[in-house]
Amino acid sequence: MERVLSAPRTPAQPHRLGKVLSLFTGAGGLDIGLERAGLATVACLELNDDARAVLAANRPEWLMPGDGDVNTAAKYLTPAALGMKPGELDLVAGGPPCQPFSKAAQWTSSARSGMEDDRARCVHGMLDLVESFLPKAVLIENVEGFLQGKGSAAGVIHDRLRRINEQYGSSYELVAKVVDAADFGVPQHRRRAIGIAYREDVQVRLPEPTHLGSPVRAWDALWDLEEREKPVASGQWAGLLPSIPEGSNYLYLTARGDGEELFGWRTRYWSFLLKLAKDRPSWTLPASPGPSTGPFHWDNRPLSVREQMRLQTFPDDWTIDQPFRAGRRLVGNATPPLLAEVLGRIIVQDLQLGSIRARARMLKSPPTLLRERLDKLPPAVPPAAVPERYEPHIGSKDAHPGEGIGPSPRLAVVR
User: Fold this and answer.
1) What value does the mean pLDDT take over residues 182-205?
2) Any domain includes 403
3) Per-residue b/e over 78-107, b at no fewer than 16 CB within 10 Å?
């Protein structure tokens, strides 16, 4: 089946307005969006073999120097290696591995370890490259805990940028904000920390929401996509999915829900048996979900990789030819390309990259990856009765002993 956007959009910018060094490129989500804003990727650093295969298949012209390790890249990846001088590069962009700063890390035995985690060493590698290239702009996209709160990377980044400024006379100052991708037309609630720093004394403009109150919804993204092979739900509780309404989760099957009582109130994680609603954006897509972790399709099954790509705003001509689990991980870890396009447009305008005519043309048109809201949506399918095989589980259940916020109440009980 030919896959097209629900409304025609302007193709990728024919005029390249700037050059990007991409770090932690992954499946290319950030780069796709920046490309649509007129910023060309001149080289990308990525360690994961599956991700490198995706990048090579979709953009064989993107240079992937060395082994992709940002920690050591500054030893060989210099401005001269890319045919430029320090200061000529327009943008260094990337999102360092988020695990040490993510909410999911709360549920591990060590909780969030932030900059003390070995996986956070790549932040220093990223800043080494910033010092080497002295780009006109730095863009960081990551989970909200990356640039705020205890153990965040904000202090390390600010200190290093200050030292760079003192040595080279630059004016880097990271300006950060936590945004929800759904506020910019991404059909998925996804809270991300955005940080931008400019080399020169130019005021950073962070994006203002464009879709508050009128989000692009899951149905708008998926209505015209028909997958030949659809994943099948598995696990002990998969058969309960038809018994949960669209837009709800296991809480429907608790004492405070409207269904049978099979679980205790707030005794499971939020995304347990969570289902999409046609009339709302998706919830955040996880990279490595368990068999009962949603969001699930309203047809009571896991989302396909292509469906997840639609909810992340990947263009349909971007291919991820990987096994299901690997593809799902790559998509779940990606930056929504539409959000990246919005950020790229701001950087192009702030730094006045390219010609006045090209920038003016960009301002007159909506982002190319934005899908339109449809006028009509089909009604939700009512929940079915709980299957007979689950009836022995029906009965009174204890609720969570705490507030159900984070692991602390549970850890207190275990201890």
Assistant:
1) 97
2) no
3) ebeebeeeeeebbbbbbbbbbbbbbeebee
Q: How many CB atoms lie within 10 A of CB 112?
A: 20
Range of the domain at 34: 18-214+334-364
Residue 203 lies in a domain: yes
* Residue 267 buriedness (CB in 10 A; 0-12 / 13-18 / 19+): middle
Amino acid at 394: I
Q: Is 44 noted as a catalytic residue in this protein?
A: no
pLDDT tens by residue, 276-285: 999 999 999 9
DSSP code string of 80-118? GGGT--TT---EEEE----GGGSGGGGGSTT---GGGSG
Q: What is the pTM of this model?
A: 0.90
pLDDT digits (tens, 9 = 90+) for 335-386: 999 999 999 999 999 999 999 999 999 999 999 999 999 999 999 999 999 9
Query: Active-site residue among 98, 105, 134, 338?
Result: 98
- Give residue 101's pLDDT: 46
- Domain count across the chain: 1
Distance, CA of 402 to CA of 413 (rounded, Å): 9
Question: Which residues neighbour 206 within 8 Å (Cβ) at sequence distance 6 or greater?
Answer: 175, 177, 179, 194, 196, 346
157, 158, 164, 166: CA torsion to nearest 10: -160
Angstrom distance (rounded) from CA 393 to CA 263: 8
Cis ω for the linkage preceding 295 (within 30 of 0): yes
Taking alpha carbons only, the member of 188, 101, 180, 185 closest to residue 143 is 101
CATH number for the domain including 162? 3.40.50.150
44: left (phi over 0), alpha (psi -120 to 50) or beta: beta
Q: What is the pLDDT of residue 120?
A: 61
Q: Is residue 349 part of a domain?
A: yes
Q: Is residue 370 part of a domain?
A: no
Name, in order, each residue with C-beta under 8 angstroms of 348's C-beta and a sequence gap of 6 or more. Answer: 17, 18, 37, 38, 39, 354, 359, 362
